[in-house]
Design goal:
Oligomer: heterotetramer
CATH topology of the largest domain in chain A: Immunoglobulin-like
Radius of gyration of chain B: 24 Å
Largest sheet of chain B: none
Helix content of chain A: 25-40%
CATH superfamily of the largest domain in chain A: Cupredoxins -  blue copper proteins
Radius of gyration of chain A: 26 Å
Shape of chain B: globular
Helix content of chain B: 55-70%
Distance between the termini of chain A: 30 Å
Number of helices of chain A: 4
Number of helices of chain B: 17
Structural class of chain B: mainly alpha
Chains: A alpha+beta (about 240), B mainly alpha (about 575), C mainly alpha (about 150), D mainly alpha (about 190)
CATH architecture of the largest domain in chain A: Sandwich
Strand content of chain A: 15-25%
CATH architecture of chain B: Up-down Bundle
Structural class of chain A: alpha+beta
Number of domains of chain A: 2
Distance between the termini of chain B: 21 Å
Amino acid sequence: MMESLIAAASSYAGQIDQVTHVVAILGGFWLLLAEAALFYFVFKYRRSRNPKAEYITGETKQQMKWIHWPHNLVLLCDIVILVFAVRAWYHVKQEMPPIDEEVRVVGHQWAWEFVHSGPDGKLGTDDDVSVVDELHLIVNKTYKFKLEAADVLHSFSIPAFRFKQDAVPGRQISGWFKPTKTGQYDVPCSQMCGIGHGIMGGQVYVHTPEEYRQWLDSKVPKSASLPVKGVDRIAMNQGGM
Amino acid sequence: MATQGHAAAANGHDAHGHGDHHELSFVQKYIFPLDHKIIGMQYLFTGILMGVIGALMSYAFRMQMAFPGKAVPPFGLITPEFYNSMVTNHGSIMIFWFAMPVLIAAFGNFLIPLMIGCDDMVFPRVNRLSYQIFLLSAIVLIASMFVPGGGFGGAWTSYPPLSASSVYNQTPYGAPMWLFAVALEFVAFLLGGINFITTLMNSRAPGMKMYNIPIVIWMIIIASILFMASVGPLIAGAVMLLFDQTIGTGFFDPVRGGDPVLWQHLFWFFGHPEVYVVLLPAMGIVAEVLPVFARKKLFAYKTVLWTAIATGVLSFVVWAHHQFVAGIDPRMANIFTVTTLLISVPVTEMLFVYIGTLYGASIQLTTPMLFAIAFIAEFLIGGVTGIFLGASGSDIYFHDTYFVLAHFHYTFIPIAVIAVFAGIYYWFPKMFGRFMNDFWGKVHFWGTAIPFNGIFLPLFYTGAAGDHRRSFDLLNFPELRQPNLIFARQFATISLLVMLGFQVIFFINFFYCMFRGRKAGANPWNANTLEWVAPSPPPHGNFAELPNCHRGPYEYSVPGRESDYWPQNEPAT
Amino acid sequence: MSEGNAAHNHTGPGHHHHEPHAPSYYVKIWAVLLVLLIVSITGPMLGNKILTLITAFGIAVVKALIVAAFFMHLNVEKKYIWYVLLTMLAAVAIFYFGVAADVQKYNGSNWTKPASYKYDEDMKKAHEAGGHGGEHGAEHGAEAGATHGAAQ
Amino acid sequence: MATAIPIATQRSATGIPTGKLALWWVIGSEIVIFGGLLASYLMMRLMYDSWSDAASHTNTVAGAINTFILLTSSLFAVLAHDAAERGKGPQAAGYLLLTIGGGLNFLVVKAIEWTGEISHGFTITTNTFWSFYYTACGLHGLHVIGGMICMGIIAFDAVRGKNLQRVEYIGLYWHFVDIVWIFLFPLIYIAK
């Protein structure tokens, strides 16, 4: 259902869509049931058909069953939803699987700064590649991001990954994602960040390893010593897949 | 009950107490009134006026959403600053200056003394003061949109650091004025709330026991208590943020030891109970309308009352679900998911009780009844779609999308529009002694209830497809340029225009019938509650003789009685 | 007729009046409060942190309860006034425990607060550097705010 | 304008006079306001070790004197209530004036204390500890001032034996303001 609306391009997109579908099915069931009962009663007990109303207090044991059973069933549905929701949440927000690459994301008024680890595969070194509004990733690699905000709150959101996390000034928030489909996806800011909030959006490019290396080569200055090690690492990881 | 002694004694000087009220000038009666009904009217008219302003704002930004970059008459081209300011003030106005004054203050003021059978609020002058502060807050808010730099545009949640510094928000005067207006409004409602609670606790008609109080009164009182217990941290937070904005403290500036997430907590600790502060009175209005036009006792009165109280208590432990992805510790999110899903239990239970009330009923589809049924039908959708957001896993995706927006409009519009219309059509005869026109009322009903779905069903769709909130032009994002999304946005906007157009019928009907409508007697709907004992419209002092209460409020179609209703004040024979 | 007389004339069945006490009764309670005050001031002089917490906050609670019970006459007031006040205190407690997990910590599950950590270190350095952390702090604050705004 | 008292005001289903009941709710709402502010302060105070250094600059002597003053003024407030209960209006008014005197003393000490701190460079914008310090004490001080004004009005009536029950209500409010200070005192002055 969700995939027909928007691409699902990360490893956990399916799990989050699953939560959505579970809620849709259980919630939809109750919604339809309640609406059906409501309209059936309105139709059946209208004055022209039923001129004299019954006297029902709704406080005898027999009558309270009509409240208690739905009550218990709703509770049961809640528990089912809870299990799915917390599992997905734990997987996406609390777990940190073994990572292949790191990327630093900084929200500014009104652009994203993406710091790629560069050829050596490490953040905070001289060969980091910092790009505005473009995030370049390799398909099927697990990325850890470090999210910061330079001025006000922003929200790092990749709808196609089913991912969202606010960037808070003064905090560094980490998380992970693993793109599973090549292509180009939106990275809008989804938290009000001022006048330019509506233009703040980048693109994430999910590349094959070859494309990624081409992109990286175009960014690394020729004068820099050849970062063989980093490239090797990427290739090695590729082999290990 | 201990009161009865006094109350009987107090009834003795009724004639004395109110004899000297008849010679009031227009200004004394309508501008600086002490009468709870007039103060209720002041709240009602001010609230509706603010609601109209808020609705016109929605017209401005919905047009921009549907037809980005086109001039919107009469505003012209919508700039991002203007767009943000409209979105922010639309949200603030609709909640603080429309839903709250109308649902709690207007209906509370008008109904509480009438329905519990006394002559006025316990503190008429505090009541008047509360309205005056509220009016001042509304004026400050409106003025904030016309100061240099324009109105505040940092969303109604006003998250710092954006809201804390004009370096970031570019509204050096708009932001503090907005915040000041909100704080003033809280003070007004604290005064009003204390008045409501004290009135209910102390001034009930002799014989009116806990389970004889009409549900709407309970709901307004529970809402007032929720408001009072939750707003404190935000008042403190508003002072802190105001200092950040004006004198340069750093309460919410991380570099200087503050914490932006603290504000989010201060805000939502109030913000979530606030949802129930407006929901409960709306539920109460529906609980009054349903039994009258179903000619049937409310199903399980005690269940309704206790589920309302349970909802109120639970509403204090769910607030962080607004912040799941906002930077709170993810472990806390699990706790708040559990509590959030739990709160669905009492709310669904309440709705089931309402549906159960219709079983075996004899339903008259009058205008107020139509609105009451529509409230249940529409609010169910709002409630169910809330689970997508309360479940932490799916909220990662849905947070801050139009899905959220559609969800809470599916709760707030049934609450603040549909239930309010049910209440207005229902109590209009009591307010003005005349009926509203039923035919035009029904035209207005269909013109409201159907286009409303036309606005927000498409927005569920666009939200699920990734439209995120508060962007002044979604076409800046390639994924959101699909033709079917554009069509859905335009469909929503056109539905809005239709819905707004039909409200004109309401206003004509309202003001025409205020003066020319068919005359109504004291109890035109054959209802049980005490307000229908007083003449329509009730004079200052309400009752010729203060009523006593003999039974619960919903004794309709009692077997063995000739008439199908049994007023609360009628002694058992 | 004034509101006052009206309300005060009620001595009906529901309106209870506690026994009037001699003024000396209140003076005695006041004396107890003063003794507690002295204890709470001298507590920190013993230099034990836990003892300080007990003498400072434990005694504050005791003092507040004494004032509430005897000066505000909650000891003879209807029980549900206690419930109202305790409900409000419970709301504050819920707020505290819900928020402390984020605001009172430097780090948690997948997040840290580098800015707060740096702030605390800077404050400590400023304090060690000179007795008058104040002026230094003021400069630091303004400066930090400025860089914060401009640099990014 | 006609000022007849509604019958609503004179009823008392709870057995607590209306004015007093309302005052308890006022106190209830104030608890959450101060509670929200102090809870926010407490979180940061517990997080930042450096704030105990900042707190060492507060003037414990001034805080202690003010606690003493407020406790004593609370005694006068309860004595005023006691006198009002016995129907002695002028005596109640006298005690109320003593209470107001206590409030004035409190403000004078506060003013001296703040002057000293500001002259040492500790202003509200110095850092967030001092922002909390001035905001919390300032909010409390506003309550003291408000209470004094109300007390003045009530004392004015009480001399002539009018509205004596209000002496008790303002007393309740004053004791509450006292209790807030009882907690502010260790939070700001003692825990270092």
